[in-house]
Structures are given as structure tokens and as C-alpha cells.
């Protein structure tokens, strides 16, 4: 079976979740709006890249397992 995750889709999902959570945490708990905005942007970008990396690693592992099973 071919299980492939689109890295952009998973990265976007992680980025959206991180954006919402960081908005709730940083804006409501911080007194400086500009600093909170920077932390939200950095957190969202890092989470987007983490989601992309996670999908790429998952696709690599599943593809290598498929190729190993085809060789047997």
C-alpha cells in the first residue's frame, strides 16, 4: 500500500495549530504586543517546518519499507 503524506499539508496543519495556540498563549499572557507578534510568527514558522520534516521522514520510512518488501 502506498501511504504518502503531503509535506505541505502536514506542515500547514502544524502551522495553523501552532498559530492558534500561540495566539492564545502569547497575546493573553504577555504585556508587549509587538514581542508577542514576533513570537507567534516564529512559532508558526518553526511548527510549519517541523510538520514538513515529519512528513518527509514518514514518507522516507514508508517508501523504504515498501522497497524492502518488494525485494523479498
Task: Explain what you see.
With 72 residues, the protein is mostly helical. The protein is built from two helices and no strands.
- The low-confidence parts are none
Shape: rod-shaped
Radius of gyration over alpha carbons?
Answer: 17 Å
Total E-strand runs: 0
pLDDT averaged over residues: 84
Q: How many distinct helices? A: 2
Structural class: mainly alpha
- Sheet-strand content, in percent, reads under 5%
Q: What oligomeric state do these chains adopt? A: single chain
Q: What is the terminal-to-terminal distance? A: 16 Å
> What proportion of the residues is helical, as a percent range?
over 70%
User: Major beta sheet, specifics?
Assistant: none
Helix and strand pattern: HH
Summarize the topology:
Layout lengths: L6 H23 L3 H39 L1
Describe this protein with a few key phrases:
single chain; mainly alpha; 72 residues
What would a concise description of this structure say?
With 72 residues, the protein is mainly α.
